[in-house]
């Protein structure tokens, strides 16, 4: 049986099927225009008769409202029998229990990789390169909703993950975890060549490339290679002209976050790098390094034409102007 119902300028046909099967995947209410199906009639019409008394948000079903209210009350009625951790939804508890059992019921038909949560759809995009989530600010596309959320914080400046020791904020929780090791000084991963200790296994893997010379991340435009993926991302902006880091004071944009950090100091007057000999302060660590050579007498930069030495790279570049031969414009770093 079908019902014909007028909604605004669009006609929808409601198919009456077998109702009450909320635990099956049956969707008896279908839209005659687009074909999309729903389990409940109110979903088809966009009706939200159940409202939250705290924030006013509306819901199509009473169960959804019940779940939502727990975000205000903090109620977590579903507890894990293994570790005692509690959750607001039974579905989240089910997913959590798999961290104890090791169950991974969702498998990729392409590579066979299994997942403990319903992340299979997102994983499949690593094979198809589909990027359905777009940034409204810059148009950049992402494979996952979380990826887009993390990216949006580069525009908003939001850093919701804070270090309890020093107060430093981070956009992503994983960045905070890496940072925390700086306070504990724990570095369990050591380089077998030079003995350098690293707090993360991934950090050690990147460090090893400084010995092997491996640069696995290559630019498809110019062929330049990089040790880190972040280095390639930063380099790509030289081709695209993208400048995602903007100054909230004057609006000036930068391709690199570090460049924005240095620029902000021109507004704040901050000079965090001080000379231990004379007390002079600098905005950049590299400027302090150059300055220190005025005390030590070291001249790290040499002219490839006449051999004259200089304390800083800027001084060498200025000197090079006296040599008119363009081919001689190179310098050796001692």
Automatic annotation (TrEMBL):
Swiss-Prot/TrEMBL keywords: Cytoplasm, Developmental protein, Differentiation, DNA-binding, Metal-binding, Nucleus, Repeat, Transcription, Transcription regulation, Zinc, Zinc-finger
Major subcellular site: cytoplasm
InterPro entries the UniProt entry points to: Zinc_finger, Znf_C2H2_sf, Znf_C2H2_type
Entry's Gene Ontology BP terms: cell differentiation; negative regulation of transcription by RNA polymerase II
GO cellular component: a single term: nucleus
Domain (C2H2-type) ranges: 50-77, 78-105, 106-132, 133-160, 161-188, 189-216, 217-244, 245-272, 273-300, 301-328
The keyword Translocase is assigned to this record: no
GO molecular function: DNA binding; identical protein binding; zinc ion binding
Localization per Swiss-Prot or TrEMBL: Cytoplasm; Nucleus
Similarity comment text for this entry: Belongs to the krueppel C2H2-type zinc-finger protein family.
UniProt protein name: Zinc finger protein unc-98
């Amino acid at each position: 049986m079908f019902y014909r119902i007028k909604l605004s300028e669009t006609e929808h046909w409601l198919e009456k099927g077998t109702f009450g099967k909320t635990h099956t995947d049956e969707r008896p209410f279908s839209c005659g225009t687009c074909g999309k199906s729903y389990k409940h009639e109110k979903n088809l019409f966009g009706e939200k008769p159940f409202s939250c008394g705290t924030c006013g948000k509306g819901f199509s079903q009473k169960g959804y409202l019940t779940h939502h209210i727990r975000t205000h009350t903090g109620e977590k009625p579903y507890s894990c029998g293994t570790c005692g951790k509690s959750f607001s939804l039974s579905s989240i508890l089910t997913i959590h229990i798999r961290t104890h059992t090791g169950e991974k019921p969702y498998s990729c038909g392409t590579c066979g990789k299994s997942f403990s949560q319903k992340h299979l759809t997102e994983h499949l995009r690593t094979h198809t390169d589909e990027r359905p989530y777009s940034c409204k600010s810059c148009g950049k596309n992402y494979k996952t909703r979380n990826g887009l959320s993390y990216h949006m914080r580069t525009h908003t400046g939001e850093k919701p993950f804070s270090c309890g020791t020093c107060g430093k904020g981070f956009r992503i929780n994983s960045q905070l975890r890496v940072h925390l090791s700086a306070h504990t000084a724990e570095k369990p991963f050591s380089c077998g060549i030079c003995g350098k200790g690293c707090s993360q296994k991934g950090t050690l893997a990147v460090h090893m490339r400084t010995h092997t010379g491996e640069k696995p991340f290559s630019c498809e435009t110019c062929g330049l290679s990089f040790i880190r993926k972040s280095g390639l991302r930063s380099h790509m902006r030289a081709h695209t002209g993208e400048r995602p880091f903007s100054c909230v004071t004057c609006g000036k944009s930068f391709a690199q976050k570090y460049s924005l950090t240095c620029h902000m100091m021109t507004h704040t007057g901050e000079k965090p790098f001080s000379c231990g000999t004379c007390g002079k302060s600098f905005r950049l660590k590299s400027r302090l390094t150059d300055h220190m050579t005025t005390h030590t007498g070291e001249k790290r930069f040499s002219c490839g034409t006449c051999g004259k030495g200089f304390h800083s790279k800027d001084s060498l570049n200025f000197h090079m102007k006296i040599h008119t031969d363009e081919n001689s414009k190179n310098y050796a770093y001692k």
